Amino acid sequence: MTINKFRITQPSEYITEKGLKKSAAKLLPKKSTVVAITGATLGQVSRLEIDACANQSVIGIIGNEEFANEYIYLWIKHYIKDIISNQTGGAQQHINRNDIKNTAIIKPDEVTYEKFMNLIKPIFDKISRNSFQIRTLEQLRDTLLPKLMSGEVRVRF
């Protein structure tokens, strides 16, 4: 997966079930927040719109009963600069997984949290739908543009 994208709607590579079982890769469910913890994309934060596998240079944060996926995503996006301020390493900087796991997430009172989630959930759902529509339109553009340029397809006005 490529973490330097706003939303991840398609895999960058594929892995077999056998490969998944025999590797350090982890399967993450859609709506997980993913953070690049090493390399050129260090500190990049994305949200999965599909189930995807991640290698050891990525950490996935999955919502639970206490904190919804949307809340976690926004919290991590807000605090990522503080988290990466703890980076270490010489030639290749990295963040320790524990720096992310030990990041405290503050939850407001239940009434405020519920109001927030009622506002934010439909927005995240709309962003998800739009992300897939954008992908479809990009594929259509990539298919049609060469045909239009070569004259294979003509448009009447």
What does this structure look like?
With 157 residues, the chain is an alpha+beta fold. The chain has one domain (7-150): DNA methylase specificity domains (Adenine-n6-DNA-methyltransferase TaqI, Chain A, domain 2). The protein has helices at 17-21, 69-84, 97-101, 110-150; strands at residues 7-8, 26-28, 33-36, 45-48, 52-54, 58-61. The strands form two sheets. The protein has a four-stranded mixed β-sheet with strand order 1-4-3-6, covered by helices on one side. A two-stranded antiparallel ribbon has the order 2-5. Strand 3 (33-36) and strand 4 (45-48) form a beta hairpin. The protein starts with 6 loop residues before the first strand and ends in a 7-residue tail after the last helix. The model has no long low-confidence stretch (mean pLDDT 89).
Mean pLDDT: 89
- Beta percentage is 5-15%
The SSE order reads EHEEEEEHHH
Please state how the strands of the largest beta sheet are arranged side by side: 1-4-3-6
Derived structural class? alpha+beta
User: Main beta sheet: strand number and arrangement?
Assistant: 4 strands, mixed
Task: State the low-pLDDT regions, or none.
Answer: none
Q: How many structural domains does the protein architecture include?
A: 1
CATH superfamily: DNA methylase specificity domains
Summarize the helices and strands and which ones pair or pack.
Blueprint: E1 7-8, H1 17-21, E2 26-28, E3 33-36, E4 45-48, E5 52-54, E6 58-61, H2 69-84, H3 97-101, H4 110-150
Parallel strand pairs: 1-4
Antiparallel strand pairs: 2-5, 3-4, 3-6
